[in-house]
Amino acid sequence: MSLRHFTDLSAVSEGDLRFMLDDAVVRKARLKSGERTKPLEGKVLAMIFDKPSTRTRVSFDVGMRQLGGETIMLTGTEMQLGRSETIADTAKVLSRYVDAIMIRTTSHERLMELTENATIPVINGLTDDTHPCQLMADIMTFEEHRGPVAGKTIAWTGDGNNVLHSLLEASARFRFNLNVAVPEGSEPAQKHVDWSKAHGGKLYFTRSPEEAVDQADCVVTDCWVSMGQEHRARGHNVFSPYQVNAKLMAHAKPDALFMHCLPAHRGEEVTDEVIDGPHSVVFDEAENRLHAQKAVLAWCLGA
Ligand code: CP
Ligand code: NVA
After folding, report:
1. CA of residue 162 to ligand 2 center, whole Å
2. Which of 49, 181, 206, 228 is the most buried (most CB within 10 A)?
3. Quick one: signal sequence residues (predicted)?
């Protein structure tokens, strides 16, 4: 089997992504029924965090344990990486010790340098550019609640950030319509838009959150300032029209879902009324990180 990295949805085939989602559903059901298997017994996942995390950190750790494997938690600053050992050398050394690496880091180039120099699978646990594991959980969550996502309409409102970039890739890979409303100056990177369109993504861009959300099956948002992006923080008045509140949700289908990768900044990108309300599936998304990532780990490690 050739080396399987999970760096981006655009880097993994549609068939493999669908295989992982189906596998995630089975693994979740098995766990709930009390069935325990240990396909990754004896395997070790190194996790490198250059940024904070709650969900990614805990779900990968617990996921590995549920599969019978173990984890080592590393932070960039505690490693020689923080004293200027190169990413490439770090990749080569870790490849001699562990079976896979999950990294949450800053620039996407760091992830790619690690991937190019590792002889074991590398998983993207978020970069400044993308967050593919989040989208696996999100699509799984959508389909749990509403059936196949293909042909459905998802609306994004807010900042054009890493989660939106992976959502753009997901729209092509999973064949749903994606409406995007972001303020001027917060547009997603053109390369993700181009990739999505070139691979069949049906995208619609507008400045109007009401128009984006109109008759949508699902409304998604995220923080207005991502980790490490504080330098490009913009006044809240720029983003406030893009807040997901009850008035905005009323434009979506009556049974529309509300999604947010969390952590949420309540009162900013979403109101309590929406995130705690009947449309919201944010904690299902968080839970499904665990199961989707077990499927990613099993796929990467051939288990
Ligand atoms: N959604 C997500 O990745 O959460 P964490 O930053 O807590 O890992
Ligand atoms: N866009 C957010 C996602 C956090 C999970 C960030 O990068 O901070």
Report:
1. 7
2. 181
3. none
Binding positions for L-ornithine: 162, 222, 226-227
Residue-wise pLDDT tens digits, 22-39: 999 999 999 999 998 899
Q: CA-CA distance, 75 to 118, in Å (whole number)? A: 18
In the chain, count of helices (H) and strands (E)?
Answer: 12, 9
48, 55, 265: residue to mutate for ligand 1 pocket, most atoms within 8 A of CB: 55
Residue closest via CA to ligand 2's atom 6 equals 226
Residue range 41-50, pLDDT digits in tens: 999 999 999 9
Say what the pLDDT of residue 98 is.
98
- What is the distance between the alpha carbons of residues 2 and 17, in angstroms, rounded to a whole number? 16
Q: Residue 167 has what pLDDT?
A: 98
Closest atom of ligand 1 to 131 CA is 3
Sites in the chain below the pLDDT cut of 50: none
* Cα three-residue angle 145-263-243, rounded to 5 degrees: 80
Q: In this structure, are residues 47 and 133 in contact, taking their beta carbons and an 8 Å threshold? A: no
Q: How far apart are CA 159 and CA 293, in angstroms?
A: 25
Q: Ligand 2 centroid vs 301 CA: distance in angstroms?
A: 27
Where would I find the H helices in 75-208?
Answer: 87-97, 108-117, 132-146, 162-173, 190-198
- Ligand 2 close to Cβ of residue 223 (< 6 A): yes
- Reading phi first (left if > 0) and then psi (alpha if -120 to 50, else beta), residue 189 is in beta
Ligand with an atom nearest the CA of residue 160? 2
Ligand 2 touching residue 56 (CB < 6 A): no
Residues 122, 91: Cα–Cα separation, whole Å: 9
Q: State how beta strands 100-104 and 122-124 pair.
A: parallel
pLDDT above 70 coverage of the chain, percent: 100
**pLDDT at position 242:** 98
